[in-house]
Every structure is written in structure tokens, then in C-alpha cells.
Amino acid sequence: MELPLAWSLVLVLAGIWNIVIWPRFWQRIDKDPRSRDEQGRPTRFRTVHAVLIVVSLAFGLAITLLGVLTLF
Fold first, then answer.
1. Bridge-partner residues for 42, per DSSP?
2. Is the pLDDT of residue 1 over 80?
3. What is the DSSP letter of 40?
4. Cβ(63)–Cβ(11) under 8 Å?
5. What tens digit of pLDDT does each residue of 6-64 get?
6. Rounded to two decimals, what is the model's pTM?
7. Count of CB atoms within 10 A of residue 63's CB?
8. How do the domains of the chain map onto residue ranges?
9. How far is the CA of 71 from the CAs of 13, 19, 41, 57, 62, in angstroms?
10. What distance lies between CA 39 and its chain's CA centroid?
11. Residues 6+ away with beta carbon under 8 Å from 30
């Protein structure tokens, strides 16, 4: 696949950004009191954010891979 170098670099940087930022967000969600109920079970708040983070990490990985593949 051919793409200008600048666009390939944008894809790589956007993917890396997602891979770096979302795990840090999880640390904040994990510490949030809304994350668990009184019995210590995960709440919907935690579940929704976990799904959001997993999907975003998958997109980040795919974007990074696409950017790397377009470099060559």
C-alpha cells in the first residue's frame, strides 16, 4: 500500500499515542470508587470503561501496524 511518508508517520504516532495513553487511563479507572460496589464487585462503570479501553487499544495496535506497513 502506498501512502505519503507524512501520513504513514501520522498513523504510527496516533497508534502509539493510543497504546501509551489508554493503560494510564485504566489506572485511574481502577482507583475510582465508582469502579467497585460495596462488596468489591466490578460495576457497570468499570465494565464499560474496560470495554472502551480494550477496543481503543485494538484500534491503536491496528493503526500502528497499518502505519508501519505503509512505510515500506
1. 36
2. no
3. S
4. yes
5. 999 999 999 999 999 999 999 999 999 999 999 999 999 999 999 999 999 999 999 99
6. 0.87
7. 20
8. 5-71
9. 13, 19, 45, 21, 14
10. 29
11. 46
